């Protein structure tokens, strides 16, 4: 099962490598990992997407909690939550496909943020499957380059991850 | 008053009441050593290789429950120390390692004797720090000692660049410390303890299985009290030996790959298992599927939540400091006025005693060749069971665990988790520093002892009267045993050729050497070593039966009840 794990950790040099090192040392899987400082600059928030059996996910959260720099760990996917990923896609946009690409981008509520005679850069936000669906909807041969941020997430309503 | 970083390091160690620092100087730690030279509140023990410094600090801690401290220089000083750090980490031993680093402006420049110490040691420490500003030094050292000893203990490394040891700042050692990201759980949940008690009282075939956690948390007293009140059988892991008295009738021996027949059978067939400070590792329960093929209720008590439900599913998990949890359990038991099912318990003991009747540790000592088991048994008798025994890793380690009956905690010092050959002699040194009047024996083999043989020099310098029991079978014994049993007798690279004359070797370091070749000489030689040469280091080279194997044995991947017993059993 796919899980989205959110971690609050001390914003210190090396904290990221402690987390990534833990995943490789214990053969846990990482689908994506994002990290940035929070509104409190002494803390970072990391979002990891991983998959595994319930036992494996339990071990992941326990092992993360054991890291000295980790303040809090929550499995967002245990309850209602919002997940988002940002993708920038550079696509070939010449001749008749130029209009077609724009139409598909509009349907997916993507924004064209850079235009040249032969290409567009489209910015698209959503959950992973929406981004995948967009790529499936346009001709793959047109895709020149993609850059995805990985997932970040937040709990709905009263679920708050804070110190 | 303004102090230099080097002075601050020394002051912090003094504030922590450190008695000994095991170490080896070098370029990056010269300012610290200069300050060390000017003080006499703690002593420095100069080892001959950094690996031994860490092992000695580790054993100092294992045998005393204090924090061991070692100091090494940057680069090769640290890389040499890594095996020692990983060894301590696998067995959760609280030590603090202070390492020198190249000056901060040089970090990342491939400077002389530079290595990424924090990166290299990260997977084998509980935590580590790089101190980039002298103002953070005192607080960081305070944190290091606090983290090492609290929660599930472990090694903590503090990497200090050379310029930080020269810079000055105001010194104040924080009296207490709190960290928002580190609050080890210590108070057990009442409801869980009640559930555990209910299961224990309902048990028909109960079993108490305890590990190194009992030793580390100094919970032996509470364990003995609880076990005696309940009257249940007790088994210890390799790391847990001495946590429950080995000579007690409720003790069924060590369990696991080389555990006794009765311990493994009782573990497999019990209906309620209480695991205390143990982690169901592969050398203990063998194949987890086979272990799970018989239904039983499991209560698991540990300070580390991640040890629980890692390898087996658990019915009642309890996270807490073991003396508190066991005390709580004892209190509830006494308040309840209830007793375990006496009839069922009597039947269970009858079954266990039948298993005991197999005498799985029996061996035959003939007239010609010395059996290694006999040497350990004789050592036990001559030392009255009261020695601190260190071991290296291999067959001799298992024989030491099987035949030396430990009645007290912190007497059996070995590398259980990482299985590090070469620990025996530096371990014996650390033990002796922590226990200056103690009898210390190091049970080793001719291969292991050579991995840190240079420490005979340190032992001479500090006049450490260690008794080295070298069970010399001219083979990497455990490797040879596996090759005999599982690799068609193809003894690939397990014969140890070109051995030194250990008697002359010991003598060249200024110690006493003895070679013992016949069974009849074993007892008199040991007696001489522990009486006439009481104050000397004695290297006793016992030439033992080369074909002796460790039994019982559970092959890798097999189940607890699938033991291979000695041929004549």
Please tag this protein with its features.
heterodimer; A: 163 residues; alpha+beta; four-stranded antiparallel sheet; 4 helices; 9 strands; elongated; B: 569 residues; alpha/beta; six-stranded parallel sheet; 22 helices; 20 strands
Can you offer a commentary on this structure?
The complex is a heterodimer of chains A (163) and B (569). Chain A is built from four helices and nine strands, in the order E-H-E-E-H-E-E-H-E-E-H-E-E. Chain A is 28% helix and 40% strand. In chain A, a hairpin with a 5-residue loop joins strand 2 (32-37) and strand 3. In chain A, strands 5, 6, 7, 8 and 9 form a five-stranded antiparallel sheet that branches. The mean pLDDT of chain A is 95. Chain A is elongated. By secondary structure, chain B is α/β, with parallel strands linked by helices. In chain B, the strands form four sheets. Chain B has a six-stranded parallel sheet with strand order 3-2-4-5-7-6, sandwiched between helices. A six-stranded parallel sheet of chain B has the order 11-10-9-12-13-14, with helices on both faces. In chain B, helix 1 (5-15) packs parallel to helix 6. Chain B starts with a strand and ends in a 26-residue tail after the last strand. Classes of the chains: A alpha+beta (163), B alpha/beta (569). At the A-B interface, helix 1 and helix 2 of A face loops of B.
Query: What portion of the residues of chain B fall into strands of 2 or more residues?
Result: 15-25%
Which structural class do you get from the secondary structure elements of chain A?
Answer: alpha+beta
Most extensive chain interface and residues per partner: A-B, 20 and 18 residues
What is the string of helix and strand elements of chain A? EHEEHEEHEEHEE
Strand percentage of chain A: 35-45%
Biggest beta sheet attributes of chain A: 5 strands, antiparallel
Question: Taking strands numbered 1, 2, ... along the chain, how are they ordered across the largest sheet of chain B?
Answer: 3-2-4-5-7-6
- What class do helices, strands and sheet pairing of chain B give? alpha/beta
* Rg for CA atoms of chain B: 24 Å
From the spread of the alpha carbons, the general shape of chain A counts as elongated
């Amino acid at each position: 099962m796919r899980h989205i794990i959110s971690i609050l950790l001390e914003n210190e040099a090396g904290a990221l490598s402690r987390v990534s090192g833990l995943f490789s040392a214990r053969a846990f899987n990482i689908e994506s990992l994002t990290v940035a400082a929070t509104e409190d600059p002494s803390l970072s928030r990391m979002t990891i997407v991983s998959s595994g059996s319930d036992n494996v996910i339990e071990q992941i959260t326990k092992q993360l909690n054991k890291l000295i720099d980790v303040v809090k760990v929550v499995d967002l996917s245990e309850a209602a939550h919002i997940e988002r990923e940002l993708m920038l896609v550079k696509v070939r946009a010449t001749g008749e496909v130029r209009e077609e690409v724009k139409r598909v981008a509009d349907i997916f509520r993507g924004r064209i943020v850079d235009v040249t005679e032969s290409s567009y850069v489209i910015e698209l936000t959503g959950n992973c499957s929406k981004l995948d669906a967009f790529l499936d909807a346009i001709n793959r041969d047109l895709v020149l380059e993609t850059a995805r941020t990985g997932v970040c997430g937040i709990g709905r309503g009263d679920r708050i991850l804070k110190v | 008053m303004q102090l230099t970083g080097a002075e601050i390091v020394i002051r912090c160690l003094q504030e922590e009441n450190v008695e000994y620092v095991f170490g080896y100087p070098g370029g990056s730690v010269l300012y610290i050593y200069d300050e060390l030279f000017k003080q006499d509140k703690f002593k420095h023990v100069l080892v001959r290789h950094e690996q031994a410094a860490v092992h000695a600090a580790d054993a100092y801690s294992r045998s005393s429950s204090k924090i061991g401290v070692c100091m090494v220089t940057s680069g090769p000083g640290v890389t040499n120390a890594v095996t020692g750090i990983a060894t301590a980490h696998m067995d959760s031993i609280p030590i603090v390692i202070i390492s020198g680093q190249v000056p901060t402006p040089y970090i990342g420049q491939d400077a002389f004797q530079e290595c990424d110490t924090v990166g290299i040691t990260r997977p084998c420490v509980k935590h580590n720090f790089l101190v980039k500003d002298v103002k953070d030094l005192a607080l960081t050292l305070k944190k290091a000692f606090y983290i090492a000893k609290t929660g599930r203990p472990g090694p903590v490394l503090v990497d200090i660049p050379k310029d930080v040891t020269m810079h000055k700042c105001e010194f104040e050692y924080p009296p207490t410390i709190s960290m928002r990201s580190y609050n080890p759980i210590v108070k057990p949940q009442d409801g869980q303890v009640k559930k555990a008690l209910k299961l224990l009282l309902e048990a028909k075939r109960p079993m108490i299985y305890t590990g190194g956690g009992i030793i580390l948390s100094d919970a032996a007293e509470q364990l003995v009290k609880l076990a005696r009140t309940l009257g249940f059988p007790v088994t210890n892991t390799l790391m847990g030996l001495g946590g429950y008295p080995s000579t007690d009738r409720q003790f069924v021996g060590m369990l696991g790959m080389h555990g006794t027949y009765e311990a493994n059978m009782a573990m497999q067939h019990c209906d309620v298992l209480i695991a205390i400070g143990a982690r169901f590792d592969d050398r203990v329960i063998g194949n987890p599927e086979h272990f799970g093929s018989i239904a039983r209720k499991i209560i698991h008590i540990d300070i580390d939540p991640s040890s629980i439900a890692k390898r087996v599913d658990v019915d009642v998990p309890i996270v807490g400091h073991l003396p508190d949890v066991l005390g709580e359990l004892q209190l509830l038991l006494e308040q309840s006025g209830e007793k375990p099912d006496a009839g069922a318990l009597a039947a269970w003991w009858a079954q266990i005693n039948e298993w005991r009747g197999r005498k799985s540790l029996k061996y035959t000592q003939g007239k010609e060749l010395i059996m290694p088991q006999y040497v350990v048994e004789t050592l036990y008798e001559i030392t009255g069971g009261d020695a601190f025994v260190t071991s290296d890793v291999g067959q001799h380690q298992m024989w030491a665990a099987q035949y030396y009956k430990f009645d007290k905690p912190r007497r059996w010092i070995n590398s259980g988790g990482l299985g590090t050959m070469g620990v025996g002699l530096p371990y014996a040194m650390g033990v002796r520093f922590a226990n200056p009047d103690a009898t210390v024996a190091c049970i080793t083999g001719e291969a292991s002892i050579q991995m840190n043989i240079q420490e005979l020099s340190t032992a001479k310098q500090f006049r450490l009267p260690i008794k080295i029991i070298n069970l010399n079978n001219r083979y990497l014994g455990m490797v040879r045993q596996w090759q005999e049993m599982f690799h068609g007798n193809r003894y690939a690279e397990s014969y140890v050729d070109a051995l030194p004359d250990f008697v002359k070797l010991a003598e060249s370091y200024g110690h006493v050497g003895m070679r013992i070749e016949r069974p009849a000489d074993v007892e008199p030689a040991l007696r001489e070593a522990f009486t006439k040469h009481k104050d000397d280091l004695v290297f006793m080279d016992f030439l033992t039966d080369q074909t002796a194997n460790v039994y019982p044995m559970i092959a890798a991947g097999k189940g607890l009840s699938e033991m291979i017993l000695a041929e004549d059993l």
